[in-house]
Amino acid sequence: MAWDYYGILGVDRSASDAEIKKSYRKLARQYHPDVNSTDEAAEKFAEIGAAYEVLSDPEKRRVVDMGGDPLGSAGDPGAGAGGFGGFGGVGDIFDAFFGGGGGGGSRRPRSRVQPGSDSLVRVTIDLEEAATGTQKEIQIDTAVLCTTCHGKGSADGSKPTTCNVCNGAGEVQSVQRTMLGNVMTARPCSNCQGTGEVITNPCASCGGQGRVRERRTVTAKVPAGVTTGNRVRLTGQGEVGPGGGPAGDLYVEIREREHPVFVREGDDLHASIRVPVADAALGSEITMESILGEELNVRIDAGTQPSDTVRMRGKGMPNVRGGAHGDLVLHLDVAVPTHLHGKQKEAMRKLREVSKDAPELVDTDSARSGSLFSRLRQAFNQR
Ligand SMILES: [Zn+2]
Ligand SMILES: [Zn+2]
Hints:
The chain is 25% helix and 26% strand. By secondary structure, the chain is α+β, with helices and mostly antiparallel strands. The protein folds into 3 domains: 1-107 and 173-191, DnaJ domain (Helix Hairpins, Orthogonal Bundle); 113-160 and 199-257, HSP40/DNAj peptide-binding domain (Sandwich); 263-336, HSP40/DNAj peptide-binding domain. Helix 2 (17-31) packs antiparallel against helix 3 (39-55). The two termini are 65 Å apart.
């Protein structure tokens, strides 16, 4: 019986090369013996490899589409493995995923000791912390070197012995009967997880893995100027690899908490100041604290209009690469009083009497230079 290669990869018969490749990579990751060490997974992994070998080759794919099985060479039973020995294209995937398992010719057995994977944790910091830089203590669940066996995996310090299932080859071959003859397929040995060697007297602490899971506290130095999405790398603080292999890196991803006053835009900060109408008309001054706690004197010019801004150069966030600071942009919001009483009302009435201003319709030309026109234009642009 011919294999359902399309079914194995979960793609339609009309699938494109890219779709086939994508599905293959996804499944290979899922069933890779490093991820899933069951026999079933190993078998599935071998099937996926075979299906991809066939469907990624136009010639072989045509044979399948005509109802045949290109992995079974007719009239020559047992020799069907031609081109499939040593796992063929699967070796490339091994390299791509796991940093290689020995070069040249047969890729197996792969090393028992593998580099560890990188880890990622997220921390939330205040804007003030982002402005000054900070140190964060972070708790992580990770794989660390087994201190009992120092990563060797054996209880008595003895060396691993050759696997007696695969005789050290790291893979086992099996013969499949197909419509067109016998096909030999190779799959990673499940007894030794494809390494070709077994630990006969495994360490009690780590079960021979050379690493154990542990909760650790690490200190991350967060530089000034970081923002949401930035990652701090802690070299060698990731997971220790299988067999006590070298640890990966730990990435700390920054998330910035919203600030009650400042809104960040790149290295610039924005804030709003409510200006009473008399201060806007006559001019005024206000003191405020910068994000770094520095006292700032902000001058509000006489004749300030609603939506005017004051830009304080260099009073924003430090740039994460060092050097210049961003600006602090203050948005002046002129507050027109809503509840006037007694003397205030009187003063306003007087103001109206002495000023000759009255409401009037403005034509575009006279508004062109003023802020009204630009606001109108903005309103139109938003539609
Ligand atoms: Zn151990
Ligand atoms: Zn084996």
